[in-house]
Amino acid sequence: MPAPASPSLLKVDGLSLAFGGVKALNGVSFCVEPGSITSVIGPNGAGKTSVFNTLSGFYRPAAGTMVFDGHDLAGLPPPKRAALGLARSFQNIALFRGMTVLDNIKLGRHCHLRTNALQALFYTPGARREEEDLRREIEERIIDFLEIDHIRKAPVGALSYGLQKRVELARALAMRPKLLLLDEPVAGMNREETEDMARFILEVRREWGVTVLMVEHDMGMVMDLSDHVVVLNFGQVIASGLPGEVQGNPEVVKAYLGSGNVEALRERFQRAAQAGAAARKAA
Asked: Which string of DSSP letters, residue by residue, matches 227-282?
C-alpha cells in the first residue's frame, strides 16, 4: 500500500482581491507542500506581492480561503498568523534603522513571548530569564548561522543593503517559522550577495526544516532552488508545476516575451539556471 500523501502546509483556494475596479487577484489557487521551496513568479504587476500581503493579513480578500497548517487564516490578525508559524521578509526592507542588528532580530520573537507588559516594565526575574534565553538562542543559532556576529551591535542604518537583507531574514527566523515567505530576497543584490542568500535559503530548508514560499525575479535562482513553481499573470495562475515543466509552458512564454516562442524562453531560463549553478559551485 502506498503511504498516504501528507497534507499541504498551505492551501490557497480561489483567492480574489480588488482595489476599486482593479482586480489584483482573481481566483488564485495553489498549495505549498511541507519541506518544499515553492516560488511564485510572473511579470511586474502580476499580483505576487498581493498574494503575500493577503497571506500575512495586511489585505483582506474579497473571496477565497487560506488554510495554513490546518488553521483557516480568515479574520486572523497578522500577530495571530505569526504565532501560528507564518513569517515573512519584505520587498522593501522593513527594519528599524536606528536600532541595532540584535534588537531588530529580537523583535521577531515578540509574538511568542510569555512576559506581559507589566512584567517587562519592572523587569521581573521571569522577564529577565526569558530575555536571557532569547538572546542566547539568537546569538548562538541565528546570528552564527547567518554569519553576522561582527555586526550584531551595529545600527541597521549603517549597514550595506545586502547585510540589511540578511538581518531581515534573521528577524523572520527568530519567529520560529513553519513557513517562511520571502518577497524578492535577492532583489538589488550583487552576485556574491545573491549566492550567499541562495545558500542560506537552502540551509534554512535542509537544516532548520522550514518550508519556503518565495517571490523572485532572478530566474536562475528560481529554477535552481525551487521544487515547485507557480506563475501569475494579471492576478491569475497561468501555470503551476516543476521548474522544467513551467519553462516550456506557452502561456508562461507569452506572459514574459509576448510571443509563443517556447524555445527562446526555455533557453533563457536554462542559461540563467546554468549560470547560477556554476557560480554556486565555484563559491
From this structure: SEEEEEETTEEEEEE-HHHHHT-HHHHHHHHSS--HHHHHHHHHHHHHHHHHHHHH
Averaged pLDDT, 150-161 = 90
SS (HEC) of 181-217: EEECCCCCCCHHHHHHHHHHHHHHHHHHCCEEEEECC
Q: What are the grid coordinates assigned to 155, written together?
A: 545600527
**Are the beta carbons of 224 and 50 closer than 8 angstroms?**
no
Structural domains in the chain (count): 2
> Do 275 and 136 belong together in one domain?
no
Three-class SS state of 223 = helix
**Residue 147, H or E segment:** none
What pLDDT does residue 203 have? Answer: 93
Q: 3-class DSSP state for residue 132? A: helix
d(CA 51, CA 218) in angstroms, rounded, equals 19
Kindly state whether residues 150 and 185 are assigned to the same domain: no
- Would the pTM count as exceeding 0.85? no
Map grid coordinates 495571530 to a residue: 80
